[in-house]
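Quick check before the chapter quiz. The format below is the same one you will see on the exam, so make sure you can read both the input and the output lines.
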Amino acid sequence: MQKQQTENSHFIYATLVTFNTTIKIRKDGTPFIITGDIPAMWLRDSASQIRPYLILAEKDEEMANLIEGIIQTQLNFILHDPYANAFNEEANGNRYHDDKTKMTPLIWERKYEIDSLCYPIQLAYLFWKATGRTSHFNETFKKAVNEIIKVWKIEQHHERDSEYRFERDHCPPSDTLTREGKGSLVDFTGMTWSGFRPSDDACQYGYLIPSNMFAVVVLKYLGEIAEEVLKDKELKNQALTLAKEIDEGIQKYGKVEHPKFGTIYAYETDGLGNYNFMDDANVPSLLSLPYFGYCDMEDPVYVNTRRFILSRENPYFYEGKIAKGIGSPHTPKQYIWHIALAIQGLTAMNEGERQTILDMLKNTEAGTNLMHEGFHMDDPTQFTRPWFSWANSMFSEFVLALCGIYVKGSPLYNSGKNNNVLINATFRK
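Here is the expected output.
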């Protein structure tokens, strides 16, 4: 009984920690979510942190009001600067580093990442599906999504049209962009360029394929919103045309024949014939494609890609005495990420793999009742970031999925593939 209570406490504490410790109400009454041990709000992290609470928002008006406020905060940040990834609670001039880029006092960091613009659209769409509300599809929303489309079109022609630059001194190469802040050379593919990955590490090649896939998904969401709610044919056509262009680029330039695994997706390319074969722990990742809805779990190219990235052919797949899973160049070698384990569980096709993932998550929290960024594959007491809210929310979403509970409107909810999954017996009792 004591063991069961301890296991249950992992889920309860990880679920509550975002709500109790990371959400602030600013002086003007609007909500702000810190990422955990860093006092800034990431567009990506904040959307992922609050995502499991959409399940409560279906019936709880107070929770729905909070999430709607978070969406408005994100949209206002995008309007302030669509190239920034993280923002301060107020315009206080705090920042991670004095980078060579167009900073303002409100910006914590200005690393341009496609997914930073995807996540707020995804959250707004799922909020609509969960609650039926459309009040957040207001003028601020319309201005923000038009700005997103504008940026993605500019970055389709990065070499010719983009004014974005980012340089950081006295740092590892992964924290800055080459060619005086422009990044490695790319050719036109139809995809849209990204300076940095969801890990905040610089892209090796500028077309980050999983992030382009995420853009395709949310542009289709935007087309649906434009048609059903906004009644805006021009916005719908812009969104769906851009989605088609990016997707054609993915299919033409993003797939490669691997000698062992067959046709797979590369992680990055440049349109010049260079490819990066790997996967990273952060989402969007190649592992997470069914999770965010680019394809289903049985898609042949995804199945091949999944086999590749969950093998030692992926340079960031680690297997140790305690755990095996995907890590990241963002953290030390042999460090596995709890986010990647949760995604692996959410996209697993059999109960045995899901059970294995659940056991690994429970056995690697190092006595803290919390998930972390990365932990050593042989010793979970060696971990990075003791307070990393995104990882806790991903763990919570995985456990809820094991119970057959999904965010309404999400790809896994719509697929119904795992609705018969039962949670581990220690949680069922």
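If your answer matched, good. The longest helix spans residues 209-230.
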